[in-house]
Design goal:
single chain; alpha+beta; Nucleoside Triphosphate Pyrophosphohydrolase; 7-stranded mixed β-sheet; 2 helices; 7 strands
């Protein structure tokens, strides 16, 4: 048996914040895991918090935006070389504030049909596929 090869598992949240048909995306800052890739804003759940609390905390910490995490739209499981994540994706209702790049990250409002023009990590690509399903020819 190779139990020592078990990778750590992390629950991570991502939020879909909408404005005039566009969705908010952020660029991962320098020095972070997967730096330079775009993502839906969110972050890693702390041991003592629920997923909704994590989503709301991360939005406030990263973007100065107060949101209410609504329903989980989907959960994406992904295995990286050194860890496994479960990405829990929420629809979020904006309650207060305008998004600001509080962690020096770039932020953009993007039409969903344009999301494939940006480079995203594999779990976020699954979210994009969910948002804009491929059209069968």
């Amino acid at each position: 048996m190779r139990a020592q090869n078990r990778k750590p598992h992390f629950d991570v949240t991502a939020g879909l914040v909408w404005d005039k048909g566009r969705v908010l995306i952020t660029k991962r800052p320098k020095g972070s895991h997967l730096e330079g890739l775009w993502e839906f804003p969110g972050g890693k759940k702390e041991d003592d918090e629920g997923l909704e609390d994590c989503m709301e905390r991360e939005m406030e910490e990263e973007l100065g935006l107060r949101v209410r995490a609504e329903e989980v739209l989907l959960t994406v499981h992904h295995e990286y070389q050194t860890k496994v994540i479960s990405l829990h994706v929420f629809n979020c209702t904006s309650l207060e504030g305008e998004p600001r790049a509080l962690q020096s990250q770039e932020i953009r409002w993007v039409d969903p049909k344009d999301l494939k023009r940006f480079s995203f990590p594999p779990p976020d690509m699954k979210v994009i596929e969910f948002l804009i399903p491929s059209q069968a020819s």
